[in-house]
Structures are given as structure tokens and as C-alpha cells.
Amino acid sequence: MKSKRLSLVLMTAALGLTACATTQSPTGRSQTLLYSSSQMQQMGDASFAEMKKQQKISGNKKLTQYVNCVANRVTAVLPDQTQKWDVVLFDSEQVNAFALPGGHIGVYTGLLKVASTPDQLATVLGHEVAHVLAQHGNEQVSRSQMTGMGMQIADAALGAGGVSNRDLYMSALGLGAQVGVILPFGRAQESEADIMGLELMARAGFDPAQSVALWQNMSKAGGGQGPELLSTHPSNSNRIAQLEQLQGQMQPLYQSAKANIKNQCAAPK
């Protein structure tokens, strides 16, 4: 019964909640969404295009193929298979990754030193894709709208080619760590992304038990401040405890899925 409830979480997110309304998030939390799916896609497209212009893309073919392998398996279990996902590996020591509306995933090479196994990388990618499924970016931009900042975000993102205020809408979409403006997702959003991301990785045939090891690695990385990823994804004992509590529900999904996995993803040595 619990597994069915978690599946409903993903299905609810995949339906694309109606914008301009107060509605419920996939886990039943109240959300105010002021923007349509097409507007959010425009923001995601504009942000990703800008990042590809300004940041170095990795030329390491083996690493790129590996990241694509993990990302493709995670996105292959999404209920909506009409969305095509663009995956880019950026050449940077940042320990970070993100996903954006419109089907965009960015991974930094520095993350691969901390997320050292395919299962750990799938933990991060499942989490980031879950933010998109749960429309957390829409929620952030909508909150900014209601505090007077949103019109600037919308004008910059939705204007004809205008990117002069890109820091504003990129930070609202969870990219603050990359552009120097921090507008982190809240604890409730993080918890939702953890729950949904864990189910995604399990259904994709990645071991959800490795999620605990991943966040433990994250908390140790980068000294006292931790890596960039933790500036918008705070790691704490509550997060790890929640992941541990969910293992009983997720392990059966993983055991069922792994027997049917044909595309194994091996980290390059």
C-alpha cells in the first residue's frame, strides 16, 4: 500500500498541475503556482542556454557517456515519456548538479568525485528531476512574484531574448549557487524531492541504500562549509533519517527493477 502511495506521488507530479492556482504538491502540501508549464519551460530553456554559453562543457567522452547513461535510466521511468531530456556535463570542480523545466539536466565533473558510484549519482539526479516534477521552480518564482521580485524574473525570462536579469530567474529555478544569488528550496521542497527521487532511482534499478552514503559523503566534502550542492540542498540528520526510514518501501522496487535492467552504467576508472 505504501509503495502504491509513493507511485501516486510521481503520477500526480507528472500530470502537470494547473498554473495560476493554489493546489496541492505531490505529497499533499499546499502550493501556489502562478505560471503555466509553457512559461516555466521558457525559463528553463533560457537558463540552460545561457549556462551552456558561459560555462565550459566537458570534452571527456567516457564521463559524458556515463552521466548520460545514469540520467537516461532515471528519466526512462518517468510517467511522462513525451518529454525529451537534454543532459550536459560541465567541466568544473563544483560539486553540483541541477534539473530545469523543459527537460534539462546539468552535472558538474566535481560531483563525480563525491557521488562516486552510479547509484550515488542516480541519487542526485533523481532528486533534481523530482524538483522539476513537483514544480518547485514554479513555486519559487510564484513566491518571488508575490514578494515583488517575480515581475523582474518573468520579464527577464519571458521577454524576447532578454537575459539582462538572468541571475534573478536562474536563482529562482534553484541555480543560485552557480550565479552567486542564493534562493534555496525550502525544507518541505527538499523533503519531497528526496522522497520522489528515491522512488525514481529505485524504479530505475539503482540501489536506494546508496542515497544514505551519498549524503554522508556530501556532508564530509569540502571541509566545514561542504560543497556547492549543499548551499541549496542542506544535508542534515533529519534528511538521512528520512532516507533510512524509506528503505523498507524502496528496496522491493529496486529488487524488482534491477532484474530487468539491460543498460548497466559503469563509472569510468
TrEMBL record:
Signal peptide stretch: 1-21
The keyword Nucleus is annotated on this UniProt entry: no
Cofactor(s) needed by this chain: Zn(2+)
CDD domains with a match to the protein in the record: M48C_Oma1_like
Keyword tags: Hydrolase, Metal-binding, Metalloprotease, Protease, Signal, Zinc
Cofactor note: Binds 1 zinc ion per subunit.
Location of the Peptidase M48 domain: 64-245
Pfam families with a match to the protein in the record: Peptidase_M48
Source species, domain of life: Bacteria
Family membership: Belongs to the peptidase M48 family.
Protein name as catalogued: M48 family metallopeptidase
